[in-house]
Every structure is written in structure tokens, then in C-alpha cells.
């Protein structure tokens, strides 16, 4: 890579105010959308909310909003594949049953959404088969829709959920960075796309691509957070009103509201992915919106991936899907959404005695289960560093792990340890709180790719009592 390319990447890493990209990456100034249509390329959209439960309301709200945008922009239903558990719209806690909103007093973004994979069909195995076009494997699951892409097609993947070091979550399993990378390599080898754009909303989302995603395969990933930081929910606390949770995620809401605000402007059609990235990077201040992969894709219009609603001469405006507001957004770290909501409610003077007692009990029990999780994982850590004292200075402390760089060859070790924890201790996918404690185990594998053989034995010895508790939904 040349000097100018190196400088460009450095500028992205520190969040420069202007997009600086080497001249060698710049493409000829043509109407890419017209060229794409001329050559017959299709647009495919994959929308994934990888969680369930009312506390994760914001994930499904984001995905429903994204669905409304791409449908308004003319993406055919048959080219949109949606995965979401679908337990929010008709949840008993929903103050307006049958609807989902993505901003205070917002319009219903659930109406008309076609969900291809619901409930237990929302898992990492199905997701990987969908994006790699394994139609046979998905034949009797959900609608069976997969990406049936070709060399002229463009693919937009919007994934919203919990995450941690090298991992994205699903309700009952985990998606590892090497698995996603293998799927992208399969897609590239089979010429199933011209370009891929991914928007990933999750804590530590950058760790899925940092040092992993190649820069010459026409794949670009924009993430809500860097490799070592949390993403943030928004429209939380008082702004959520009777919903008593966060209505959206800050990065997701930002890019979609930016689109809604400019949908009536003719220039929006040519607004590039990098332009959208810069706007998000400027407006999302709690975490660092990052970009990884092939920068050529960043110079393409965002509309080349998510479509654009054309306007006739007699109707030059379009209604935004959501009202645009300049009101500051109440934000909460995605790790603390439910805990923050409970504490806010307990601080209220309007709670009934029975409701206050219920929430106090919930908070106390959750804290007790957090302690159990911390104790179990810390015990494993302590036994490892006792057996291998020289490793502690390299991996860091349990609560403050060192910042080590992931590489693809650490994942067999990492996955093996986490599978053993889920098998012998408690389900990692089912307990979001535990995800924030996993970096230390990635560090073990970075330092020694064969350490899992020892760690697995220590897991079994540390978790015999914990497993019987069947911990679930610890936030």
C-alpha cells in the first residue's frame, strides 16, 4: 500500500472532519446508478435484528425503519430479506399493540414489513446461508429467500444487535468474525456481487473487521463503534414515554434520519457512502463510527445500494418516513439500557408500591446474577494465570484486558473456549451482560492459539454449580 493510502487510513482512524481518500481510489465521475441499471444489476437488501425481548426493542425498530426506507426507495420485496424474531409489535408491554416506532411519537414502521425469518429461524447459521445464496439449505425454513446475486449486483446488509470482541449476537448463538469473513470470501469467489455495503450496529462492531476485512474485494463495512467501545441506544428514558426502553440505536437512527431529512433533495441520489459516513461520524459523538474494507465502494452513491425514490415533474417532493427533529437525543450505552431504565423508574415519585417493589426485586436479582457471572469467569481467568503466570502481563487484568489485535487464526481457539463456557456455565448469547467480559478470552488465544485445550478443563472445574442455576437474560 502506498504512502497516500496509509495516510488515508490513519485519517479515518482518528476521525478527520473531511474524507481523505487517495486519488488512486477515485472512480470516474459517472452516474453509477444509471450504469448499474443499464447493465441489469439488481439490488439486494438483508436486514437483521439479532435479538429478542422487550429490552431490545430498539433493534427491531431500527430494522423496520430500514425496511420502510428501502421499500420507499423502490427495492422490490423479493429482493429484501428480513430476519427478526417479531416479538415486539404484539408484546404485552407495547402501549400501542401491533405497532413499532423508532422515535418519540413516531410513525408506525412495523406496518407492511414482510418478515422472512422469525423466531428460532433467526440464527447465525441461517444468516450465513442466506448471504451466500444456499437456497437448497433454506428451502424449508421461513420463506426460503436467499441472495441470488450475480457479478453486477449490489448488496446492502444492515445488522443490528449486541456484540463484543470479534462477535455479533443472535438470540441463541453467536456469529464470529471469521465465519462472516469466510462467507464474504465465498460470495467473492462465486462472483455473486459487484459491491457489498454493510452497516453494523453493535458494541465493539469494529472488531468484526479491523485487521480482518480485505481492502480489495469490493466490500465496505461501516460500524457504529470501534473495536473496543460500546454503541449507544437513543430516544431513551423520558423520550421513550410509556415504552420505557430505548426506541432506537444512535448510529442507525442517525443515518436513517439523515436520509429522511434529505429524501426530497435531488442531490440525495448522488450522495456517496463516504458522505453518509462523514455525517454519521460527526453526529454520533458517544462512539466512533468506523469504516473498513474496500474504499472504492465508499465513493459509490448510497442510493446504489438502498435505492432512491424517483419523483415525477409534477411531484417533486417526497414525504419522509419519520418526522425530522433537532431535539437532542437521550442516549444510553447499549450495555446498560435495561439497568438504566429500571433505575430511572425507581427514581420516579409516580410509581405504585407494588411496581416499585417489583422493579427493586428485578434489579436486586439481576445484580446477584451479574455477580455470579463475574465470579465464574474471573475464576476461570485466575486459574489460567495461576497455571501460566507469564501470560498475565500480556493479556491484562480480568476487568481491564489489554488491547490486542485479532487475527483470523485465533478464532478456532476463541470459539472453542466460549462454546465450553456456554455448555458448562451459562448461555453467552442468552446473557448479554456476559458479552462484555469475553475480551480476556480472546486475548488468551491471541497470545497462545492452543491455550483452549487447557482453558476448557478449567471451565468445567469452575462451573459445575453455576450451570444448575440456568441463568438467562442477565443484562
From TrEMBL:
<feature type="active site">
    <location>
        <position position="162"/>
    </location>
</feature>
<dbReference type="Pfam" id="PF01650">
    <property type="entry name" value="Peptidase_C13"/>
</dbReference>
<keyword id="KW-0378">Hydrolase</keyword>
<dbReference type="InterPro" id="IPR001096">
    <property type="entry name" value="Peptidase_C13"/>
</dbReference>
<dbReference type="GO" id="GO:0004197">
    <property type="term" value="F:cysteine-type endopeptidase activity"/>
</dbReference>
<keyword id="KW-0788">Thiol protease</keyword>
<feature type="signal peptide">
    <location>
        <begin position="1"/>
        <end position="18"/>
    </location>
</feature>
<dbReference type="GO" id="GO:0005773">
    <property type="term" value="C:vacuole"/>
</dbReference>
<dbReference type="InterPro" id="IPR046427">
    <property type="entry name" value="Legumain_prodom_sf"/>
</dbReference>
<keyword id="KW-0732">Signal</keyword>
<keyword id="KW-0645">Protease</keyword>
<feature type="active site" description="Nucleophile">
    <location>
        <position position="203"/>
    </location>
</feature>
<dbReference type="GO" id="GO:0051603">
    <property type="term" value="P:proteolysis involved in protein catabolic process"/>
</dbReference>
<protein>
    <recommendedName>
        <fullName>legumain</fullName>
        <ecNumber>3.4.22.34</ecNumber>
    </recommendedName>
</protein>
<comment type="similarity">
    <text>Belongs to the peptidase C13 family.</text>
</comment>
<dbReference type="GO" id="GO:0006624">
    <property type="term" value="P:vacuolar protein processing"/>
</dbReference>
Amino acid at each position: 500500500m502506498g504512502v497516500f493510502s496509509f495516510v488515508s487510513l490513519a485519517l479515518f482512524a482518528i476521525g478527520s472532519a473531511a474524507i481523505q481518500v487517495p486519488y488512486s481510489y477515485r472512480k470516474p465521475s459517472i452516474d453509477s446508478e444509471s450504469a448499474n441499471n443499464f447493465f441489469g444489476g439488481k439490488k439486494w437488501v438483508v436486514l437483521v435484528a439479532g435479538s429478542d425481548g422487550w429490552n431490545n426493542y430498539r433493534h427491531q425498530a431500527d430494522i423496520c425503519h430500514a425496511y420502510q426506507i428501502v421499500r420507499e426507495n423502490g427495492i422490490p420485496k423479493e429482493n429484501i430479506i428480513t430476519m427478526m424474531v417479531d416479538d415486539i409489535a404484539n408484546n404485552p408491554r407495547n402501549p400501542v399493540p401491533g405497532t413499532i416506532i423508532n422515535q418519540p411519537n413516531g410513525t408506525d414502521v412495523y406496518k407492511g414489513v414482510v418478515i422472512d425469518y422469525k423466531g428460532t429461524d433467526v440464527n447465525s447459521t441461517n444468516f450465513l446461508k442466506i448471504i451466500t445464496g444456499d437456497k437448497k439449505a433454506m428451502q424449508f425454513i421461513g420463506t426460503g429467500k436467499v441472495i441470488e446475486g450475480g457479478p453486477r449486483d449490489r448488496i446492502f446488509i444492515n445488522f443490528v444487535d449486541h456484540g463484543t470482541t470479534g462477535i455479533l449476537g443472535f438470540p441463541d448463538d453467536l456469529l464470529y468474525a471469521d465465519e462472516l469473513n469466510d462467507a464474504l470470501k465465498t460470495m467473492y469467489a462465486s462472483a455473486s456481487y459487484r459491491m457489498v455495503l454493510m452497516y453494523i450496529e453493535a458494541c465493539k462492531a469494529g472488531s468484526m473487521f479491523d485487521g480482518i476485512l480485505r481492502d480489495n474485494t469490493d466490500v465496505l463495512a461501516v460500524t457504529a463503534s470501534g473495536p473496543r467501545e460500546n454503541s449507544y441506544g437513543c430516544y431513551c428514558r423520558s423520550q421513550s414515554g410509556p415504552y420505557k426502553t430505548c426506541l432506537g440505536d444512535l448510529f442507525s437512527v442517525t443515518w436513517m434520519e439523515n436520509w429522511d431529512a434529505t429524501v426530497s433533495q435531488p442531490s440525495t441520489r448522488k450522495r456517496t457512502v463516504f458522505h453518509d459516513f462523514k455525517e454519521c461520524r460527526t453526529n454520533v459523538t458517544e462512539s466512533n463510527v468506523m469504516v473498513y474494507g474496500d474504499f472504492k465502494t465508499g465513493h459509490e452513491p448510497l442510493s446504489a445500494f438502498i435505492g432512491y425514490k424517483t419523483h415525477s415533474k409534477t411531484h417533486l417532493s417526497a414525504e419522509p418516513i419519520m418526522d425530522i427533529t433537532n431535539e437532542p437525543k437521550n442516549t444510553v450505552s447499549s450495555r446498560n439500557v435495561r439497568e438504566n431504565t429500571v433505575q430511572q423508574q425507581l427514581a420516579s415519585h409516580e410509581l405504585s408500591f407494588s411496581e416499585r417493589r417489583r422493579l427493586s426485586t428485578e434489579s436486586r436479582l439481576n445484580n446477584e446474577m451479574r455477580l455470579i457471572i463475574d465470579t465464574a469467569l474471573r475464576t476461570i481467568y485466575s486459574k489460567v494465570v495461576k497455571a501460566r503466570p507469564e501470560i498475565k502481563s500480556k493479556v491484562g487484568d480480568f476487568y481491564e484486558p489489554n488491547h490486542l489485535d485479532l487475527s483470523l487464526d485465533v478464532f478456532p481457539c476463541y470459539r472453542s473456549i466460549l462454546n465450553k463456557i456456554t455448555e458448562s456455565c451459562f448461555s453467552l448469547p442468552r446473557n448479554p451482560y456476559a458479552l462484555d467480559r469475553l475480551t480476556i478470552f480472546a486475548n488468551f488465544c491471541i497470545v497462545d492459539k492452543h491455550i483452549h485445550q487447557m482453558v476448557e478443563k478449567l471451565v468445567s472445574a469452575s462451573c459445575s454449580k453455576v450451570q444448575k442455576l440456568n441463568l438467562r437474560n442477565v443484562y
